[in-house]
Amino acid sequence: MTDDDVQARIAAQLRELRAASGLGGIEAGRQARISQSKISKLERQLLRPDPDDVAALCDVYGATEDQRDELVRLAESLRTSIIEPTRVTLSRGARHMQQRIRRLEESATLLRSFQPTMVIGLVQTPAYASGVFGAAVSGAEVDDAVAARVERQVQLRDRVPHAVLIMTEGALRWPGCEPQVMLDQVEAVSAAIDLPNVDIGIVPFSAPAAGIFPRHGFHLYDSDAVIWGSESGTATLTDGEDVAKYERMFTRIADIASIGEAARPVLDRIASDYRSLI
Fold first, then answer.
1. Cα 8 to Cα 12: distance, rounded to the nearest angstrom
2. Topology (CATH level 3) of domain 88-275
């Protein structure tokens, strides 16, 4: 049985047990001390189940001892493919990961993203995204990954209740693509300020960032999961204490960012510099 099969089995049994208990997601979460959004993600196979969460939910649902033991055992079996057990899951495959992230975004009520080195995927133009993926994969996989990213952008406009997307000025000034592509990209970020459910933030070079040293970009899905990219793949972290660390880091970054209309003058300056190169 593959890890996906195991995760699907756990998700299905948790759904069945909750339905049999007559509990809604909110009340089940309250009793198990797990957020309702996390329960939803577990039931939809969007998060890898932690054995402690599975045990807590089984207790709340009144599962038999045999049912509880089996589900906890299955959850523990998934640890063999996790780096630092119960903490980080590493996934590979650009299009597959884009689709998985899209499902996480569909279930999130609050999406918070930070990127210090590149434009956040949800506001990337196809040309810029092609450059990003082209540096990591080759051939048809680039086109597939770009198409999946565009699908996620439609999701952002139509279904994500609230997204806060923060980038550094340096991310927008990094000349990873030719000047015209970069200009179009900066203008696309500026246009996203007008989206009613999106807060665009830019950390300008002049921001008072003393003592703030984010090691990499990251994406927070409610308070349930963090995803970040590496050269080898994309990592998913669900440990509560670790997620809280990223939430605290995001808050510190947001405090020094220019958000919404305050970001537009920064973007205008960057766009002007790119125009001078064309």
1. 6
2. Endonuclease; Chain A (3.30.870)
Q: Encode pLDDT of 108-130 as tens digits.
A: 889 999 999 999 999 999 999 99
Q: Which amino acid is at 162?
A: H
Measured between alpha carbons, how far is residue 191 from residues 21, 140, 219 in Å?
A: 47, 29, 21
In the chain, CATH 1.10.260.40 covers 3-82
On the CB side of 118, how many CA atoms lie within 13 Å of its CA? 20
Q: Mind listing the pLDDT tens digit for each residue in 217-257?
A: 999 999 988 988 776 667 888 878 889 999 999 999 999 99
| The CATH number of domain 3-82 is 3.40.1180.10 | no
Outline which parts of the chain fall under CATH 3.30.870: 88-275
Q: How far apart are CA 59 and CA 12, in angstroms?
A: 17
One-character DSSP codes across 53-118: HHHHHHHHHT--HHHHHHHHHHHHHGGGGEETTTTEEEE--HHHHHHHHHHHHHH-S-EEEEESSS
Strands 163-168 and 111-115: parallel
| Amino acid at the residue 18 | R
Tell me the chain's radius of gyration from C-alpha atoms: 20
Whole-model pTM? 0.73
Write out the two tokens for 97: 């990961």
Calpha distance 32→42 (Å, rounded): 13
